[in-house]
Design brief:
Two copies of one chain form a homodimer. By secondary structure, the first copy, chain A, is mainly α. Helix content of chain A is 69%, strand content 0%. Chain A has nine helices and no strands. Chain A is elongated. The interface between A and B is large, with 45 and 46 residues. The structure holds a DNA duplex (30 and 30 nucleotides).
Chain lengths: 221, 221
DNA sequence: TTCCTTATTGACCGCTGGGTTAGGGAGATG
DNA sequence: CATCTCCCTAACCCAGCGGTCAATAAGGAA
């Protein structure tokens, strides 16, 4: 970026390449087995690189770990940002909730990793905690605002203040998240869950049968 | 238990004492820092016992870990079993939900430990996974049954089949559990949460104001 | 007392972990 | 060409790990 970078291209990209390779390997290993069960030698082997090179790129193991954290956090910010659009509030809420669930489904492994990290309560990585909580609060605020506007237009139940409804809804979403994370075969039914949530939020009538046979495939943990 | 136990008392209790001391120390350390970040020497120091003695009581580190798991699981079985009583169904549901939340509040540290363990997906400790999931399914079945009976008596909404309602409720409860685990100052409002759940389940009217000022203290994550 | 079993320990071992170091090869610069 | 800098490696270092063992203390039983 600065003046020093008018250097040769091939060498720089070579360095970048190996760095990326290391990060990629480390991300996979750390995410799937945790930092303490993953040795630097394993990372080196997975990245097909000498152990010493890792220590040339990253001062310590913790350094590498932090870099991995940032790398894994990347998809989070972009995905949540842009829920704007020309939809009405009701559809926006639906969309927001749906994108939450979709995101959870598609990023299960890194989410599992982050939650495990947060649960572990290592005060060392408080950076991560704050970052994740900030994202979470952003989502919550967005949702609260949206629900509040929907209520004003009379499009959904005003039984509870928007803030409370949002918190409640988020709790449920988080519960479903846990469901996603624990079900091994990954067969949680998105449609069913969305249907239930819409019914609850907007008091819509159930899609097909009025009460009889259970929808069978719901499995929200 | 068998005939061999007509042995001397003092020596046996001495052995038991040291064993318990080790288990106590190991439980605390494993639960707070995880198994891989806890060395046997640390356990020994915390239990004020030589490292070799630990290996006399428990063949390997994993042995000790499994013993710790069982020890930590003990409070779970008893607490869930006895929700019988002469209450009507509505009150029973309320009680069941309340005891879930209370239990979560009081056992946050071991729950955190278990979830971290489950998330980690170590196939080694599948025993634990199954045990926890069995407990969980038991609770779910109890709740489903209870809701089903309540619906039959027309005491609560029949909008959804009991099974689905139970799964949904459980998701919400789990979301609240996550809230408990992440909120540092432990200041989650039980009353508020219970109120919201009762209103949702039984369509009760909100306790005070109809829509205006938010109840402020709810904070369900 | 003597003997036998049960508890307990300090010292030790092999090995793996994170981290270092000395040096080699490749490309840009002069 | 020589030189300098940047990547990269094999080999090494050693603290701390899980685990073992020989020796011992502390009681019963005889």
């Amino acid at each position: 970026m600065a003046a020093t970078d008018t250097r040769a291209v091939s060498s720089e990209s070579r360095s970048q390449d190996s760095r990326d390779e290391i990060l990629k390997a480390a991300s996979a290993l750390f995410a799937s087995r945790g930092i303490h069960e993953t040795s630097m030698s394993e990372v080196a082997r997975a990245a097909r690189v000498s152990k010493a090179l890792i220590f040339w790129h990253f001062k310590t193991k913790e350094d590498l770990f932090l870099a991995v954290l940032n790398r894994l956090l990347e998809p989070y910010v972009i995905d949540f940002a842009e829920e704007a659009g020309v939809l009405d509030e009701k559809a926006q809420i639906t969309k927001l909730v749906e994108s939450y669930l979709l995101f959870v489904r598609d990023n299960a492994s890194s989410i599992r990793f982050f939650i495990a990290q947060l649960l572990h309560g290592d005060r060392t990585y408080e950076v991560l905690t704050n970052q994740v909580l900030a994202l979470y609060d952003g989502y919550r605020a967005l949702l609260t605002d949206l629900i509040s506007r929907t209520q004003e237009k009379g499009l959904c139940s005003r039984e509870f203040p928007a803030q409370v409804t949002a918190a409640f809804l988020l709790s449920t979403l988080n519960g479903m998240l846990l469901g996603f994370l624990f079900v091994r075969d990954g067969g949680v039914d998105l449609e069913g869950a969305m249907g239930m949530l819409r019914q609850w939020l907007f008091r819509e009538a159930p899609p097909s049968e009025p009460s009889g046979v259970p929808t069978q495939s719901v499995r929200t943990l």
